[in-house]
Amino acid sequence: MFWLKSIKSKIMIFAILATLIPSLGLGLLSFRQNEAQIGENVTRELRALTSEASRDMELWIERRVHEVHVTSTSSAVIDGLAAIVRPQASARTNTASKHPQALTHYLRSVQEKLDTIRELTVVNTAGQVVASSAQTATAVKLPDEWPPNSLTEGLLIVPPHWDHQYASATLSIAVPVLSYDNLLMGALVAVLDLHTLQPHLKSATNSPQGDILLLDQDGRILVSSRPDTDKLQLDRSLLQKLRAQSGESLVFPGITHREVIGLAEVSTDLPLTIVAERDRAEVYSAWIALRNMFLTLVGALIMVVAAVAFQMGRSIVGPLQRLIDAADRIAVGNLEVRLTAARNDELGHLTQVFNQMADRLRHSHAEIMAANQAMQQQNQVLEMLSITDSLTGLYNRSKLDAILSDQLARFKRTQREFTLLMMDIDHFKSLNDTYGHITGDEILAAVACILVQSIRSIDFAARYGGDEFIIILVETSADQALKTAERIRSQVENMRYSFRDSTISVTVSIGIVQCQSDDMTATAVFARADSALYEAKRAGRNRAHCAQ
After folding, report:
1. Which stretches of 225-367 are assigned E, i.e. beta strand?
2. Distance from the CA of 525 to the CA of which of 104, 154, 317, 507 falls in 20 to 30 A?
3. Helix H or strand E segment including 346
4. Reading across the β-sheet that carries 211-215, which strands appear in turn?
5. pLDDT tens digit sequence for 515-535
């Protein structure tokens, strides 16, 4: 990943991002708005298509009802039905048909002329078939009372469905047949072939683009503006979703296309769902082609910008690399480096400044060597300071280790005992967090002052680290050391430190250990003292604990 850290790579990345972000951002925003606009336009067209199909379907049914109504008012139907259901009245008026099959022949002749009708059947008021153009007439059930508009609009008695007898989608309507004196004698039932509705679903020239599907309650396609779809079926859950969001476009898997945009309109007159759909790939084909062209142009632009950025980075990084190599040689002590400034730009100026810097380094080298001798003298002074802690003035950890090692060696030679006190300021971290590190440092210095005042000149006090202190009491037993520890603890507890408008009280916990014959190293003594200090803290802090 080193190449990502180079200036040349950063220039290339910046150039690419500076090109990519605005162009892609604006382009994608524009395409997103264009996509939404296309969706709105398609939805509007599909609504118009369903409305047009619904209107044309209503007109088609009205024409078929009119044709059936005209047939029902013909003298052949009235006289033929009257001869069968009212034979006595027909005999008196001498209007009875001489041929009982005349009505059937008439119905067949009318049905042959009307290609939209699959069957014409005359029934009496009880719904019994009197005559029919079909070999097997469709069974019907007439209402007990005919609505007033049935004389002109007919009556739907069998909703649209797939008729296996005729291998087509059909619906059945009934028109009452009245005698010449306006008495109800029966009805003329017509089975309409919905397949003949297909050319009327949409106009090839005036209708918006898209396909129209008429579906029953189970999702079966009864009629479609697209041929060869009458045996297909839409998923029922999808149909329910379309009906629930009537008038709103949805994207779903189509029957004839992989993915379509469609919407549904529920018919108010018939138990049908009118679905208008368009192939989504066709709708967005121009949009996708334009998008791909845009992405191609952006990609080409990025390549051009990257090439230009690469050349610019190369022209910058080359001189910089020579400067870096020269600086590396100076860093290892070669002060005789000098570069040729052949450019008049910023890098040429930087090269000149680099040469001046190298000259000054050479002139300063002698002065540095002279200053080095003076520094060695100062180091001797610093060595003296290195054994004390700069904040408290006590011995530091390094000196403490040397003192304790000497005391252990002396104890092994002379058996003169000594005692070590390990002290810790209670809750010092909270004091630091509450009053700040400056106040914490002042508290450390104040505690160190108490320690110095509480020990003899032959004893040693050191800062062990952080807020921990060590006191080595020479030729002192543990009992005597406990008294000294209590005196120190009491003085620290009585110390009051003012901070702004508040008073800070400080306490310490002290662990006490006396040297033993098995103490081989300073670490062992410190470990025992740390354990004693832990016992003092566990006992509640602000106390001294002497290890047995």
Report:
1. 250-252, 260-266, 273-279
2. 507
3. helix 346-385
4. 221-224, 211-215, 273-279, 260-266, 250-252
5. 988 888 889 999 999 999 999
